[in-house]
Write a structure and sequence with these properties.
Helices cover about 65% and strands about 0% of the residues. It is mostly helical. The chain has one domain. The longest helix is centred in the first third of the chain and has 24 residues.
């Protein structure tokens, strides 16, 4: 007997179609958001140019880069069924949206996700 069957996703045979996309949004936004919230909490006591905050920004950026690289190059689930060209294209367009919107992470992630969804519809109908 499965003790987790009453919880969402655990009792189902497969996850909902939108689950991988929700994971992309969470993996793309939360790692930087946590550091930003910590920065806001400590902002009055630290210089924005301090070595600690420079290190924090570097770690957050490295985490995002690692997660994106893993999702694009070594995906699992629904992403694994998409062509590598679609995954790379979505990442590139998402990055372009990120840069052109003043480095807005959420916009970049949502645009990349929209490209993936549109590409999946065009490829698989």
């Amino acid at each position: 007997m499965n003790d987790l069957a009453h919880l969402p996703f655990f009792g189902a045979a497969t996850a909902p179609v939108w689950a991988p996309y929700a994971l992309i949004v969470l993996a793309g936004v939360l790692p930087t958001a946590v550091w930003r919230w910590a920065g806001v909490a400590l902002a009055g006591r630290m210089s924005p140019d301090s070595e600690v905050l420079t290190w924090v920004r570097a770690v957050a950026t490295a985490l995002i880069a690692a997660v994106i690289a893993k999702l694009v190059l070594y995906p699992s689930g629904a992403l694994a069924d998409m062509p590598i060209t679609l995954r790379l294209g979505a990442a590139g367009i998402g990055f372009l949206a990120f840069v052109t919107t003043g480095k807005n992470v959420l916009v970049g992630v949502l645009i990349a996700e929209a490209v993936l969804i549109a590409g999946q519809v065009l490829v698989y109908g």
